[in-house]
From TrEMBL:
Subcellular location: Cell membrane
Membrane topology: Multi-pass membrane protein
Family: Belongs to the 4-toluene sulfonate uptake permease (TSUP) (TC 2.A.102) family.
Membrane-spanning parts: 53-70, 82-99, 105-122, 148-172, 178-198, 210-231
InterPro entries for this protein: TM_pro_TauE-like (IPR002781), TSUP (IPR052017)
Protein's name according to its UniProt entry: Probable membrane transporter protein
Keywords per UniProt: Cell membrane, Membrane, Transmembrane, Transmembrane helix, Transport
GO CC, alphabetical: plasma membrane
Species this chain originates from: Streptomyces griseomycini
């Protein structure tokens, strides 16, 4: 794998990766979907394909911190509905990675994110979010869960960009802030951990990438603490606006990069 080691990075490149790792921690405990900026930074500093393998362990570290912070707020019925569809999406994404080039990956995911952001804004203008995510129990809700699950599995496998997809699903299902964070924390810890064998098999993770990860993980912790401090100071409406804005920015970055 053509991955840079720690000693091949100059000061500015390492600083950019450290900031991106800090942002991962922040996004996991505050504004889910904001780590699409981290994805763009990693792909700019490292070889684009290899960057997904370097970023994955950093994301898992953030997931662990998020679960420790919000474990009491997870909505497990929603998670169980999502996992089968996500597994299918991961398999499709793995096959896609075998033949797709970076341009095809970026364009397809960028378009998906922007479309979902638009649909979510439209839906939320027609109806207020409910206290409990009852929408997922209806027939239409189950169909939506399957669709978002496949898209989430696909995007998280090919570019670690599943955060905005699941953010749009959880917002559209009516989750409040803490339920949103708790459910997404467990979701991504399980999904990202399950991706490890696929990433190793594709040659995206090796000893050199893990050495770089060991250093970058140190920056995830202060980002997570900053996010935990900030989330209690963000009201529900601003929280939703920030999540949608992060999704739009991530989608545009993938399209123009």
């Amino acid at each position: 794998m053509n991955t840079m080691t720690l000693w091949h990075l100059d000061g500015w490149e390492f600083a950019a990766l450290a900031f991106a790792a800090l942002l991962v921690g922040f996004s996991k405990t505050a504004v889910s979907g904001a780590n699409t900026v981290s994805l763009a930074v990693f792909a700019a500093v490292l070889p684009a394909r290899a960057s997904t393998g370097v970023l994955l362990p950093v994301l898992i570290a953030g997931d662990v911190l998020a679960v420790l912070t919000y474990r009491r707020h997870a909505h497990w019925p929603t998670l169980w509905r999502l996992f089968p569809a996500v597994a299918a999406g991961v398999v499709v994404g793995t096959v896609f990675l075998v033949w797709a080039d970076d341009g095809a990956v970026r364009t397809s995911i960028g378009v998906i994110l922007l479309l979902m952001a638009g649909v979510t804004v439209w839906r939320r203008r027609k109806a207020e979010a409910e206290e409990e995510p009852d929408a997922v129990t209806t027939r239409a809700g189950r169909a939506k869960a399957r669709a978002y699950g496949v898209l989430g599995g696909f995007t998280t496998m090919v570019a670690n960009a599943g955060g905005p997809v699941m953010s749009m699903y959880l917002l559209s299902a009516g989750f409040r802030k803490m339920g949103f964070l708790g459910t997404s924390a467990f979701f991504f810890l399980i999904v990202n951990t399950s991706k490890l064998p696929f990433s190793v098999g594709l040659g995206l993770i090796d000893a050199r990438s893990l050495l770089l990860d060991a250093v970058l993980v140190l920056f995830v912790v202060p980002g997570a603490l900053l996010g935990k401090w900030a989330v209690n100071r963000i009201n529900q409406r601003l929280f939703e606006q920030l999540v949608i804005a992060a999704t739009v920015v991530g989608g545009l970055q993938l399209l123009v990069r």
